[in-house]
Amino acid sequence: MSDVVEKTLSALPSLLSLDSQAGAGKLSPSSKLGNLIKGITELTSKHEEEKLIKKELESIKEQVASPNTTMRQMKEIMVRAIYCEMLGYQASFSYIHAIKLAQQGSVLEKRVGYLAVSLFLNETDEFLLLLVNTVLKDLQSTNLIEVCMALTVVSQMFPKDMIPAILPVVEEKLTHPKEIIRRKAVLALYKFYLIAPNQVQHIHSKFRKALCDKDPGVMTASLHIYLQLIKENPESYKDLTGSMVTILRQVVGGKLPLDFNYHSVPAPWLQIQLLRILAYLGKEDQGTSEMMYDVLEESLRRAEMNHNITYAILFECVKTIYTVHPKSQLLEKAAECIGNFVLSPKINLKYLGLKALTYVVQQDANLALPHQMTIIECLDHSDVIIKRETLELLFRITNAQNVTVIVEKMLEFLRLTCDDYSTIDLVGKVAELAEKYAPDNVWFIQTMNSVFSLGGDVMQPDIPNNFLRLLAEGVDNVEDRQLRLFAVDSYVSLLQGVTAKLPQRFLQVISWVLGEYSYLREEESDPGSVMRLLARLLDQRHTSTETRSWVLGAMTKLCSSPVSVALARDVCERYSGSLNTVLRQKAQELMILSQDTKLRARVLPAEGRLESLEVDSSLSFLDGYVSEALAAGAAPYKSPHQRQEDLVQEKALSLEPYGLSLPVSLSSCSITDRLTDRRSPTLLSMSSGLSGNSTELSHQEGSTTLKLEGVKRVWGKDGYLAQQQSAGETPTPLVELPNPLLSPQSPPSQTQKPSSGLEPDQEKRQLASSLFVGLGSHNSVCLMGRAETAPRHFRRKPRGESSSGASEGSSNSSHSSRSAAVDNLLLSNLLDSTTVASEGGAATTTTPQQTSQRTLDHTTSNGNPHVEGTEQRVEAGGPLSLIRGNGMVAVVPPTHTQTDPQTQQDLHPAPALERPRDLPLASHLPAELSGLARSEFTPLCSDQDSSLALSACRVYKEDALVLLVFISNNNDSALHQMVLQLTCKELEISCISGSPLKEVKGHSVSVCLHTVVMKRASVQVELAGLLSYQRPLGQPQAAQFSLSLSLKHFLRPLTVSTGDYGKMWLSFSHDLKQNLRLVTTEHQEPLTATLDALKGKLHLHVVDIIGSEGIVACRLLQGPGQWIWSVVAGCGQWRLVVVSGGWL
Amino acid sequence: MIKAILIFNNHGKPRLSKFYEHYSEDTEQQIIRETFHLVSKRDENVCNFLEGGMLIGGSENKLIYRHYATLYFVFCVDSSESELGILGLIQVFVETLDKCFENVCELDLIFHVDKVHNILAEMVMGGMVLETNMNEIITQVDAQNKMEKSEAGIAGAPARAVSAVKNMNLPEMPRNINIGDISIKVPNLPSFK
């Protein structure tokens, strides 16, 4: 205590003097810093420190603001500010002064200014713009020190957009006479490459010059660049292998000046760098690898002195040898080297040895064998890091035989560790091993239980997700049932114990499994027991809200017996008044579903939940709604990310050079436009500010995809484990080592081999034999086939369905919550007799046609992630029960009503007189076309006695117009020698039915398929057809017919964003103007109505509505033309402007 | 690449912090605290490498540290750096400090933060190792220090004027030389040199 008093007393004068100084402001600055530091070091509590620093900052603020402060004083002030910032106190007011100091100070002051700037600011700071000029000036200075400072600051942080401003000057420095400048310039350029690779594309040749620089320092610096470049794209730098090998050989051979030696090792860091580059170059490339064998061997041989830095080189060398194409002689030496590392008494080397082993056992697990005793010792090492590295190594050599021992070791470590990082890491590994190699159900469930209870709430969310998926996925055979039943049993017994210590995640898993699979044990116990356990869990204080909602979800699935219903009612009463809306909702669902058994059975069928689940991740059932809203003038959706970006854009200064920016070119366009009376809709859209400029919109597309990826990342497992799995399983072809130590015949003798003179005790030996089992004689087979030897049941099943990963990933994890979503839907639509065919896998009753329709929709929507792009589906789609079922208005095009073929038949029962009465032509539609939008059946011609009738039908495929000609033979006799000719000079017609039909049997229908392409655009074309045929007992006959096709049949919507539309508008040359009347209806605005009509009649894509202008786009099938239309409304008339990229 | 260089004392007081990647100020402070927490609880006879700083990039990065008397020198690096190489670099750094400050101690680092930063800047630039040769580093630092001394000598003159003189473009000076009446025109011919 007296100590503290003493310290405070001694601090007092300094505090006082500081106070007086703040007022005086003229005392020597160095003493000020001294006082500050003295004050701080003598303080005893954080609170006092805070007070003192606050005071100090106040005084600094006062001083920097004073006009009397000289640059010299400013320099001292900055040092103090740096000190305060380092302690974590903001001195943001001094940033601008730091920049000022860098701008105006003398060299020394400038240096402090630059230092302060580089410590205070980061590359996103707008203050940096103020620095650009200073940097530019200093780069061009004749004073070397200034140039150096500028280069340093540039490589520390420089705004990306400003790189072009200084790039030429920095580039120039590559030829500077002083090597230090060249070297720093190289590194600065490397930094530029890292932040903006395409901006330095043109100076790659200069990098080569730097590589050949006469000064080794510059060459070393350039290796940073090459390491990066070669890492990214080794193929294009293979020609450098020779040079790199030469350089390394010279360095190793001691050709460099002695200055470069470090502890008499020639340029060790340079060697390390070169070895890494060689590893990248020689990877999986025998030819290149062969060039470097000699020099690698020499490096190994030379690096024999006993210093840390030589070990660094050795380690790198070993890694390179194991990365490049293998050469047995080298591998042998490298393995020996690893042995030295592992056996070294120096702990750092041991660590690196284990790391190296971990790296090499992925290629050859045998390499671990000679070191087993060391590895066992390391398992009990006092250093946690060594232990963890050992476990990592064991993880790599795990197989079906040693999995139990290794997992046990890992769990042991997990129980002792308390740091989050190792927990997360190891828990993931244990889960992976358990899934891959579990010997039996009991072990698997027990291991996973430990994983969940040890991993707690910090583990990766995909572990429970995968576990649940694994449980749910299995085919319903005995084995799966056993697994599930065992899980249920073990959870029930867990819940009967003390649950307070179980992590929330685990409780969630438990409640899901119990909810899902309790019925498996139902027969042998009283039905309410599980329910009671869950209810108990619900009431416990430590149970989180999220877990509670899982529990409620499980209860909803379980409330079948009367006991449970009573319990459920009890629970509902308590939670339906909960403040948490989710809980309240869940309680409501439970209440309703527990009372209505029928509904419950429909929503939550006991069996096969997972199989029928289908999630419409693109939310396509909302498309109708979205397009409606858009048509009604709503702003297009912006993702939060993009909204953020827009905000930033609004705030930020425009950094683009004026000459290049878009608005100028557009405004110049607008002048010409006005002259030619052709107004650009893009311009309008920009000025109206409704939907922003083109970049924004293109961002929008990007961000949509981004968002999807984001979802995938959250749920997807692929990234993390799949990668590891592949790394672990890739059997790299490796030559067998001729090393007698490793010869596969004698694993037992190796086990007995004492590792370091010590006699290993029996226990350890036993452990070793259990750990390294399966790595012995038959190990190579085992390695290759270890995936196969693992029990099939536990391996992650490949997910066949390629619908988006997001939905896949979430299907399990949030099964209960998703079925809750279904519940919501059902609850809200309880009286709605329409089956909710959307996501309720449970309630799906889609017809085959609908399903095919939907998959078709899927492909379309995947192609165009843009929300608007899906509009065409609404138009072209047939029975979109998705949309209708949800009570949204589907836009049905007025001309061709598409319902599914059956209803079509009902709606139009033989409208044509000549048409054979009850021949359902629709049923003759080829299967691949049946789901597509098509026209009605048009009768073409028929015989006098109507023994032969021809009809036509157009199918609007996405990429083609298919014309079908139906030949119905109503006679008993067959038709022979049939030839169908279609001719039209404006059209190109090709037959796509396999072989031209020759004959049609009696009372049957044949179909000829033709794709039709317009050679020249014309509004209406007449197609002439001739069918020649022969009856068995008659003359050759011919039937002539004609068919008119309109341009609109060849139009397809062109899905473009407003921005792209704007670009097309400017680039397209042909235009056509016409005044037309607006369609008026009662309910809609004329413009919207017109656009709707256009959309319906002509298959146009409505891009946007901007003010009184509507823009639509379409493309012509297989023609070069893309047409964009703009409709300007005004007093009952509208002006149509058609611009075409091709012809009109 | 080196992500950050931290020096703190046995009590966790930061003595130098240099980040080569952008973190928010709060994160920086948290990183310092977390790193200290991780490093300080390690024994003397364990390895100098650490994985598991959650804040500074998780498994991608590692901490390489050395403990000298009262100070911890910690380098946070990514997987592209050689562990032992960085360990050697720390040694070079400390030796250089020792030479520059003549028996370096914690107080030197406190009172000459700017100098330490300048030394560091000659070794590591933008996260890349620039120079590993102690003598070379000292030469560079000395060159700057010399300037400091010369500048202190003409401290009386306003700093702006001094720097103006320093920056003056020398080739321009002879152009207006007048000797008596004869004005010698100095053409810009290279041969005239």
Describe this structure in words.
The complex is a heterodimer of chains A (1144) and B (193). Chain A has 1144 residues and is an alpha+beta fold. Chain A contains 49 helices and 16 strands. In chain A, strand 4 (948-956) and strand 5 form a beta hairpin. In chain A, helix 16 (308-323) runs parallel beside helix 18 and helix 20 (384-396) runs antiparallel to helix 21 (403-416). Chain A is extended. Residues 1-29, 659-760, 777-919 and 1129-1133 of chain A have low confidence and may be disordered. By secondary structure, chain B is an alpha+beta fold. In chain B, 42% of the residues lie in helices and 20% in strands. Chain B is built from six helices and nine strands; from the N terminus they run E-E-H-E-E-E-H-H-H-E-E-H-H-E-E. Chain B has helices at 25-40, 83-101, 106-111, 113-123, 134-153, 159-167, and strands at 2-9, 14-19, 49-51, 62-68, 71-77, 124-125, 128-129, 178-179, 182-183. A five-stranded antiparallel sheet of chain B has the order 2-1-5-4-3, sandwiched between helices. In chain B, strands 6-7 form a two-stranded antiparallel sheet. In chain B, strands 8-9 form a two-stranded antiparallel ribbon. Chain B is globular. The model of chain B is unreliable at 154-193 (pLDDT under 50). Classes of the chains: A alpha+beta (1144), B alpha+beta (193). Chains A and B meet through helix 2, helix 4, helix 6, helix 8 and helix 10 of A and strand 2, helix 1, strand 3, helix 2 and helix 4 of B.
